């Protein structure tokens, strides 16, 4: 099969012919129809995550068609459309797995990190960690639901019943979370890079009540006066920039939470204790559980979540990653290996 392979961190992916994977017991073999590009993929390429398998095929937002099942696998028949997410395997017996927190399993294995992912024509996955894809979503539209959507949804849930939610960094994840939050009748404020008028407009189209930068500057709405137009009950930080954490903390109402949604972030500058005082909190969100996936994929068609997608051929994976780094598209980037 054709695949885009990461041979060493810090280098570009290399297009190569790789031996077709075979499904082992309990696994399905899928023909990849679409695979979303995630910021985590960039962190892996940049060597910011500890120990990826190398050489590695990235990609953990896979929508594919089952073409073969391994011994003992019976959950999906040939031809079924499945989604393969970041969480690829857990031990099932540790204290985290046994308490509904398999996302924290210390032995967990992740797709496109410990296990080859979907920047390729074919992929194998443990059938227990795959999801059926809701009808009504085209393959490319469904792919970003599998990480951008899922992690965003888990982050929103960690915000509790926050009425006013600030989204710091309005990319693939935020553009989905915004729609879910508005559906839940929350008020959404979108915080982008200063002067990023196009993204600010995009956020307003998706139902945000205000869009601007962290200092309150807005090219499309009311200019702020050094802060956001209202205090936040929760701030979800998607951008991997540690300096946003104290800024978001200062934008919170008492009792509010800053939720860091990314797997990697630059260092967080120090801040005064008074900024945290009054029961404000800072937490991170790590990975996903299978029940997050089932819950979110049932909710998405009800909202209904519409994903905005830029399509790339498999061989253009490096360009997709660089476009993501530079913020050159709105919504999500998706590779289409079969085209
Ligand atoms: Zn475990
Ligand atoms: Zn991801």
Features of the shown structure:
339 residues, alpha/beta, 6-stranded parallel beta sheet, 22% helix, binds zinc ion
Give a written overview of the molecule:
With 339 residues, the protein is α/β, with parallel strands linked by helices. Helices cover 22% and strands 25% of the residues. The chain has helices spanning 39-45, 139-142, 148-158, 172-183, 197-205, 244-250, 273-276, 290-299, 317-326; strands spanning 2-5, 14-17, 27-37, 62-69, 81-84, 87-89, 109-110, 122-126, 131-132, 164-168, 187-191, 210-212, 232-237, 252-260, 281-284, 309-313, 332-336. Strands 3, 4, 5, 8, 9, 16 and 17 form a seven-stranded mixed beta sheet that branches. Helix 3 packs across helix 4 (172-183) and helix 3 (148-158) crosses helix 8 (290-299). It is globular and about 60 Å long. The model has no long low-confidence stretch (mean pLDDT 96). It binds zinc ion (2 copies).
